[in-house]
Design a protein that fits this description.
Layout (H helix, E strand, L loop, with lengths): L1 H7 L4 H24 L6 H16 L6 H33 L1 H9 L9 H37 L4 H6 L1 H36 L5 H20 L2 H7 L1
Length: about 240
C-alpha cells in the first residue's frame, strides 16, 4: 500500500491527469476509428476494398510475379519501421543510463519542466513503452504480409478459378482480408509514432502534453476521415 502511495505522490495530479488523458484519447480514438470505419469510408476502408479487388484480379492471372513484388514492396515499410523502432528503443534505454546528465540537459531547454531524475526516468519509460508497442505492431504486420504472400503463392491455377466463381470470390475475400489486417496493424504502429510526438510534450509541462495529445488526435482524424487522398480514392 505504501509503495502505491509513493508512486501516486511521485507526480503532481496535473501530470497524472495529462497521462490519463493521453492513454484515454489514444484508446478511444482507436476504437472510434475502427467502429466508424464500418459505417463510413476511411482511408483504410477504401484501401481494403482495393486490396480485395487486387486479390480478385490475382485469380485471373497465370503468372503472379507482379503480386509477389507488390507484397514485398508493401512489407518493406513495416520492416523499415521495425528496424528504426529498435534503434529508438535502444537510444531511450541509453538515456536511462545517463539520467542525471539528460535531466540537466532538458532543464536547460526553455519552458521545459524541472523534475527529479526519478520523474524523468518515468517519462522516458512511458515513451519507451509506446515504441515497444509500435515495434510489436510493425513486426506483426510484417508477418501478416508474409501470410498474404503465402496465400498468393498457394492459390490454385487461374483455370481452376474459371470453373468455380464461388471459390474465386472466397479466395479474394480471405486473401484481401489478410493483407488488409497487415495494413491495419501497420497503421496501429504508425499511430503509436504520432502519439509518441505528443508524449514528448510531457517533458515541457502537463498542459503542453495534453494540448499536443488533442492536436495529434485531430491530425489523425483529418488524415483518416477528411484527407484529400481519401476523397480521390472514394471518387
Amino acid at each position: 500500500m505504501n509503495a502505491v502511495l509513493d508512486i501516486i505522490t511521485l507526480l503532481p495530479w496535473a501530470d497524472w491527469l495529462a497521462l490519463a488523458w493521453f492513454f484515454a484519447a489514444w484508446v478511444a480514438y482507436a476504437l472510434f476509428a475502427r467502429h466508424r470505419g464500418q459505417t463510413e469510408m476511411t482511408v483504410l476502408g477504401v484501401t481494403n476494398r482495393l486490396r480485395r479487388q487486387w486479390m480478385l484480379q490475382t485469380t485471373h492471372r497465370d503468372v503472379r510475379v507482379i503480386d509477389g513484388i507488390v507484397i514485398q514492396s508493401l512489407s518493406s515499410s513495416p520492416s523499415f519501421f521495425a528496424s528504426t523502432t529498435i534503434l529508438i528503443i535502444g537510444g531511450l534505454l541509453a538515456v536511462l543510463g545517463t539520467s542525471e546528465k539528460a535531466t540537466e540537459l532538458v532543464a536547460e531547454i526553455p519552458f521545459a519542466a524541472r523534475t527529479s531524475v526519478l520523474v524523468f526516468d518515468l517519462k522516458v519509460l512511458v515513451l519507451t513503452g509506446v515504441f515497444v508497442f509500435a515495434f510489436f505492431r510493425f513486426t506483426w504486420s510484417l508477418r501478416q504480409y508474409t501470410f498474404g504472400a503465402l496465400m498468393i503463392a498457394s492459390a490454385p491455377d487461374y483455370r481452376e478459378f474459371a470453373k468455380d466463381e464461388a471459390a474465386r470470390q472466397e479466395f479474394a475475400q480471405r486473401a484481401g482480408r489478410v493483407v488488409g489486417l497487415a495494413a491495419e496493424t501497420f497503421n496501429d504502429g504508425l499511430r503509436a509514432y504520432y502519439m509518441a510526438f505528443a508524449l514528448i510534450g510531457w517533458f515541457f509541462s502537463p498542459l503542453v502534453f495534453a494540448v499536443l495529445t488533442a492536436g495529434v488526435i485531430w491530425v489523425l482524424y483529418q488524415r483518416e476521415f477528411r484527407s484529400d487522398v481519401l476523397a480521390v480514392l472514394k471518387s
